Amino acid sequence: MVRITEDLVRRRAEHNNCEIFSLEEISLHQQEIEKLEYLDKWCRDLKILYLQNNLIPKIENVGKLKKLEYLNIALNNIERIENLEGCEELQKLDLTANFIGELSSVEALKYNIHLKELFLVGNPCTEFEGYRQFVVATLHQLKCLDSKEIERSERIQALQNYSEVKQKIREQEQAYLLKRAREKEEAQRRMQERKDKKQKQMESKLGFDSPDSLQNKENHQAEGDREQETWRTVEDDEEEDRRFWDEPTPYTPESRLETHRYLEEKRRAKDNIRESKKREKPLRTLVTAEGKVLNVNVPKLHFSLKDDEENNQIILDLAIYRHLDTSLLDVDVQPTYIRVLVKGKPFQLVLPEEVKPDSSSAKRSQTTGHLVVSMPKAKEMILAKQKVSTSIKDSDCNTLQKHAKRSIQVEKLEVDPSKYSFPDVTKIIQEKERIGQGPIRLQPEKITETKKSYVDFKNNEDVPPLI
């Protein structure tokens, strides 16, 4: 039986910083609540209260909510309107799809002078002849009934025939109450038959078929209640489900409660089977009896193991789920292996070399969610940098050495011109003799004269050449 608890109320009061004493609005719908209680003591300032789609059979413990303006208690098992006189500020009441058959109980709402809207759609009383006339004539303060506004002419007409309509309502109520009494007896008989049948099935499976086994029955009754679901096979469950849902049943508060009980029992049975399977499942072996560490990947995660020779360490990249909380991870680095628990599921990997657990570090990527564990190697690599130079080609080494020698040598400027040979600028372009007619003949003679003039030229080494 689900009750209203302080923890439930605080969880549903997150919009009010989980404070319940100053709470003005709360929603407790679809919580499978079977009794309305404690709210008039914990939440005195409530103005809006949602309780739809529960299993509440009676309106109670709300009379002290003086500031309550809207009460939604639709889709429950309520059969009469009562205990709302203390809700002085009540303006709207929703009782849709309940089991209200005592229509005369609406007279209890006369004291709620601020009540403007009332919803009774889906109740048995709405099928009574003269239902609307009776409610309109009884509640003078009402402005709207079942989402339909009440006009002044409608109220005048209802008041004129009030005595006759009230008599008809009384007669229909009596017939409905007799029908409800038969339905209750039938529901109680059906529940008793189902209970006896379950008890027989349990006894037959436990081996108590003889009439002299009453004492054993009492001793094993508690144990049988716990193991009742685990004894069932899949075929029995399917057959029972088919029989339960195919059986024609009237829609009553008892059948609604019975359906809830049945679904709760099936849910509990599945939970018990799941827990028993977890208990029966053997623990996974991480280290053999001989002390050999095994590679295990129960969470089935992708990973990569990298040997970082430059920094002399081993890096493990484990693809953890991006949205998994880091508090659900547990990293344990040992000299020869690493173990990571992901939500209790072990990931274990044997390392190729011995590492230093104290110097290891673990980081979590904020973008991908991957877990990166850096584990320094236990053996120090002295020639770690020389290994990188060996990968360079010999030709590249020679060029590097030449450049190094060239940078080391100091070049001096020589002033002696004999050390260097300069080309003769005058002989760079050799002119060809031109032979032709006319005035062009004069040109070779001039050229030859210039050549003759250079024949007597003597090169003076003390004079620098013209560049």
What does this structure look like?
This protein has helices at 6-11, 39-42, 131-138, 152-160, 162-206, 214-231, 234-246, 253-280, 384-390, 394-408, 442-455, and strands at residues 25-27, 48-50, 70-72, 92-94, 117-119, 144-145, 148-149, 296-297, 303-308, 313-318, 329-333, 337-342, 345-350, 361-364, 371-376. It contains 11 helices and 15 strands. Helix content is 36%, strand content 13%. The strands form 3 sheets. The chain has a 7-stranded mixed sheet with strand order 1-2-3-4-5-6-7, covered by helices on one side. Strands 8-13-12-11 form a 4-stranded antiparallel sheet, with no helix packed on it. Helix 3 (131-138) packs across helix 4, helix 3 crosses helix 5 (162-206) and helix 5 (162-206) packs across helix 6 (214-231). It has 467 residues and is α/β, with parallel strands linked by helices. Strand 1 (25-27), helix 2 (39-42) and strand 2 (48-50) form a beta-alpha-beta unit.
> What is the global morphology?
elongated
Report how far the terminal alpha carbons are from each other: 115 Å
Mean pLDDT: 81
In terms of quaternary structure, what is this?
single chain
Poorly predicted segments:
208-214, 384-393, 440-452
Strand content: 5-15%
Please give the largest β-sheet.
Answer: 7 strands, mixed
